[in-house]
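Supplementary notes for students who missed Thursday's class. We covered one full example, reproduced here. Read the sequence, then the structure, then the short commentary at the end.
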Amino acid sequence: MKSNNKLATVRQLMLEFAEITGLFPATSSPKRYLWTDAFGVCNFLELYRQTGEDRYLDLAVALVEQVHAILGRHRDDDERTGWISGLDEEAGKRHPTRGGLRIGKKMAERDPSEPYDEQQEWDRDGQYYHYLTKWMHALSRLGRVTGEQVYNQWAVELAQTAHARFTYISPLDGRKRMYWKMSIDLSRPLVTAMGQHDPLDGLITCHELQVTAGDEEKSASPDLQDEIRDLAAICRGLAWETDDPLGIGGLLFDACRTVQMIDHGFSQQASLPEELLQAALAGLQTFVRTNTLKLPAAYRLAFRELGLTIGMHGVGMIHALLEEKTGLGRKHPLLVEYIEILLKYSPIIDLIENFWLDPEQRSAASWRDHREINMVMLATSLLPDGFLRL
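Structure (token representation):
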């Protein structure tokens, strides 16, 4: 698809997303979902960069305000009211991420007296760590574009809160670990298992918040070195390989961010990109052999596949950076080697994007059941720089 056609398609997707979720025109009962909205903020920022039209920046800012006003507060069907942080009204507005942010699921979270139901838990509200890291990234991107320090401050406060509440000391080996899902008020775990890439996402995102902060922000923002130290320890010895396309894409996104940070002079975790690319390549080779992409739409999940294409665009961004900064490639020859191999899989991008651009495929229940997240991630894949950039 030509660049002009991609831009027109992304405009259409994002304006439709704004309308059906109640962002613009604003409605009395907007639908907010943290993962989808994090990608949405980045997409509006990219539309603003490519078109110069202020309305897209305004939509990005309005989306952040709406997410905080809805997902930073208790649900309408909850007997509790106000900010989930417990702060009073004015303090909550100044620090909307201090209590974390709800997922935005339709069902209320599980009551402490209710038995755990693994299948039903997927549909219940609460807080996910990997959703919070995506929101931290979106806030950081908005802060970079607007030059407003407050967005980085909110991202840092969210990172501190999430780390304090999601991590715990395992009684089995004395090591810190992480819960996968917490209650809305972060007082109790809802799922005690640890997400495979959660500590990795946290580690890279905390580094990002420090690397991308301006000099003024660095002097004003709290330090995240304690969180980074803990997360690095949790990551030690863990395996990142997965054959889930969304997980593979996440590894590539994390590698892309880390390489950009190294280009900014970041010296910690210097060998991490190669480790992530190696894991992503192993997972990609396994995924391709499953022949999943030959199945009809009814048996596929667009947002998981589009997570992979977004990550593959990250491979292209790393390649472009290595071409521009030849010294970077000389210092990291293994990085160059993995990128060259991964680039051979680039045709998978068009294969997936073209499939889900087909209106017939988007009429399948598998698309319609996850319409908003599919729309937004398709838009991200078509114009990926807004999400992939630091």
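Commentary. The beta strands are 127-128, 167-169, 176-178, 181-182, 189-191. The mean pLDDT is 95. If anything here is unclear, bring it to office hours.
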